[in-house]
Amino acid sequence: MHSARPQPIEKEAPVTVSDPIGSFSSPGREPTVAEVGEFPTIARAVAGRRQPTTTLVGPGHDAAIVAAADGRVAVSTDMLVEGRHFRLDWSSPQDVGRKAVAQNGADVAAMGARPVAFLVGLGCPPDTPVSVLDGISEGIGEAAEAIGAGVVGGDLVQAEQVVVAVTVLGDLEGRTPLLRSEARAGDIVALAGTTGASAAGLALLAAEHTGFTDLVDIHRVPSPPYEAGVSAVLAGARAGTDISDGLLADLGHIAAASGAGITVEQHTLEPGPRLRAAAGELGTDPWTWVFTGGEDHALAACFPPEAELPDGWRRIGRVHDGSGVTVDGRSWDAPGGWESFGSANSR
Ligand SMILES: [Mg+2]
């Protein structure tokens, strides 16, 4: 599977810029993106960022050059729109950037790949304070660096609201990708990470509840178990997904693509004390968060029955002949998760 690694090209020195906003700074008002200008704003976004060895040519040219030693690239993209996917009064610009990286990184991790490079398309109104763009870029850059990936390119355009479009490139490093379509009757369904906290955090923000900052923080910046995708493939898993729309909804994608049914074993998913306490205060059912809450970006995978689950994975159900997803054999009546254009939810 491995092809020869491309010859390294002399690495680019990091782009450095002097502070271009200095001349606009005035007490009491932040400089806007229009005042700073497109190119200086982009330059600020990439200034001083570290690049991994897979980035052969970084930002500063018409295109970046990224090594794809495997010969295959796992690629995924995601858009976040202000007012629909985030609110700048609920999340800092840095958090929005970190979340964008987590959402995209989780998608390639769910396939068994490692994220190596991110591309970022940003849109914003011209009167957006440049600190908002700087913050989003900083969050993206820091989060990418933390998982060993680089931000290799991007674009900035004028838009009606702040829009963050992130594309991730992932390296399978010779592994067989985890597909949604490869689950088989008899497989064990396992989960790495937890579900429900992000939905709880969103509900707390919507209710203007000031407590449970641990849950709110998970909503603002999820922490996908990136390594778990790799360990799942190595342990023999065949199918996988990240939990972005809700546990039952995402397992439903695997069931449908594999032509099988999945039963979730409810006792394996007991909500923790924090979820129970938050649900008690909001007068809601924590199981709804566990089963239908999106955006935690835990990973789910289907392992052959003889496989030994790697560290960080725990059994939550099984695959069987049939179709659909049930909880202990019964259908779950609440809405099954978030669909962007669905009628059940309208975030
Ligand atoms: Mg996904």
Please, could you describe this protein's structure?
By secondary structure, the chain is an alpha+beta fold. It is 30% helix and 21% strand. The chain has two domains: 22-171, PurM-like, N-terminal domain (60s Ribosomal Protein L30, Chain: A, 2-Layer Sandwich), CATH 3.30.1330.10; 180-327, Phosphoribosyl-aminoimidazole Synthetase, Chain A, domain 2. It has ten helices and twelve strands. Strand 4 (114-124), helix 4 and strand 5 (150-158) form a beta-alpha-beta unit. The radius of gyration is 21 Å and the shape is globular. It starts with 32 loop residues before the first helix and ends in a 20-residue tail after the last strand. The model is unreliable at 1-26 and 341-347 (pLDDT under 50). The protein binds magnesium ion (MG).
User: Major β-sheet, in short?
Assistant: 6 strands, mixed
CATH superfamily of the largest domain: PurM-like, N-terminal domain
Tell the overall outline: globular
**In the CATH hierarchy, what is the architecture of the largest domain at level 2?**
2-Layer Sandwich
Total beta-strand segments: 12
Strand content: 15-25%
State the end-to-end distance: 42 Å
Work out the radius of gyration.
Answer: 21 Å
Overall SS class? alpha+beta
**Which percent bin holds the helix content?**
25-40%
Q: What is the mean predicted local confidence, pLDDT?
A: 89
CATH topology of the largest domain: 60s Ribosomal Protein L30, Chain: A
Q: Which strands sit side by side, in order, in the main sheet?
A: 8-10-7-11-9-12
Q: List cofactors, ions and other ligands.
A: magnesium ion
How many individual domains? Answer: 2
The number of helical runs is: 10
Keywords: ATP-binding, Kinase, Magnesium, Metal-binding, Nucleotide-binding, Thiamine biosynthesis, Transferase
Catalytic activity: thiamine phosphate + ATP = thiamine diphosphate + ADP
Pathway: Cofactor biosynthesis; thiamine diphosphate biosynthesis; thiamine diphosphate from thiamine phosphate: step 1/1
Region (Disordered): 1-32, 327-347
